[in-house]
Amino acid sequence: MRHFLTLRDLSAEEIHRLLRRAAELKALHYEGALHQPLQGRVLGMLFEKSSTRTRVAFEAGMAQLGGHAIFLSPRDTQLGRGEPVEDTARVLSSMVDAVMIRTYGHDQLERFADRSSVPVINGLSDLWHPCQILADLQTFEAHRGSIVDRRVAWVGDGNNMCNSWIEAAGLLGFDLRLAIPPGYRPDPDVIALGGHRVQLFDDPYQAADGVDLVTTDVWASMGQESEQGSRLEAFRTFCVTEGVMEQAGPDALFMHCLPAHRGEEVEALVLEGAQSLVWEEAENRLHAQKALLEFLILEH
Ligand code: CP
Ligand code: NVA
Q: Which of 34, 44, 125, 288 is the S-S candidate for 99 at Cβ 3.0 to 4.6 Å?
């Protein structure tokens, strides 16, 4: 049995295989082919934070694969009334074939996984967002081929998405150039996961110089709403502007996990511009997560 709590739960070889499978599943979907290897299988989904893409991709993905997904929130489960996460894990995993969790503290996921008899998937925690990275890699590779030895710039907050990009850089072998204001940089232990592939810059223009991909995310993540004002001030010059994209070059791509705040971390013209792949990136959540479900439920 395998869990997917961070990208490091897969080997580089498994990630490459999963990305190939995601592209195959996308092609099958476009052909209208019925592919239902998960008939009779059930995914439990626990959401402690809001979601559009992650929820719909898992729910639609399970339906398309012939299975079923159950949406659960603390509001309407006993978790919200104090039932321990370990007890919930034992009960839920006795009834379903896999569990996806979106939560705050990453330790909640680890505690659940420790007691779960079925695979547990991280649908986003304060520390990591590995499902998004799978879709991002799939999207990059569909346009530019292998990401190995390419150059990626991250601009903005050293958050869960940034952490998962660092993991990907170390695991797969590409250069990641981070433009993040001091005070908002990832934990040194996380940066170390990228090894020599990760470099820090004070300025988005320096980080973006000649890269293949520029990517960013919101300045205040879910759970940081009270810091919105101070973060607006701290990140003011860490916006992906048309100037930053020019510095990257005409062949550079732009990605953002969404939801986006136009005029904050990215200019509207960049988000909607010819170099932006954000809508395809969002769609690929469906195909990448279907590949992940097949991998975890059928192969392990
Ligand atoms: N990118 C992402 O995870 O989107 P949702 O919050 O809508 O799931
Ligand atoms: N960093 C963002 C990602 C949302 C998909 C958050 O955690 O809110």
A: 44
Q: Whose CA is nearest to atom 4 of ligand 1?
A: 53
Beta bridge partners of 69: 43
Assessment of whether the complete model's pTM goes beyond 0.90: yes
Concatenated DSSP letters of 235-256: TTT--B-HHHHHHH-TT-EEEE
Look up residue 72 and give its DSSP letter. E
- Helix/strand/coil for 267: coil
Q: Identify which of 52, 102, 131, 133 to mutate to test ligand 1's pocket (most ligand atoms within 8 A of the CB).
A: 52
Peptide bond into 204 cis (omega under 30): no
Ligand 1 lined by 70 (C-beta under 6 Å) = no
Q: Is 54 in the pocket of ligand 1 (CB under 6 A)?
A: yes
**SS3 label, residue 201:** strand
Structural domains in the chain plus CATH codes: 7-129+282-299 (3.40.50.1370), 131-279 (3.40.50.1370)
Residue 2's closest CA among 105, 122, 141? Answer: 122
Q: What is the pLDDT of residues 219-274, one digit of tens each?
A: 999 999 999 999 999 999 999 999 999 999 999 999 999 999 999 999 999 999 99
216 has which bridge partners? Answer: 155, 256
Strand partners, 255: 215
Contact partners, residue 109, CB within 8 Å, separation at least 6: 5, 101, 103, 120, 122, 125
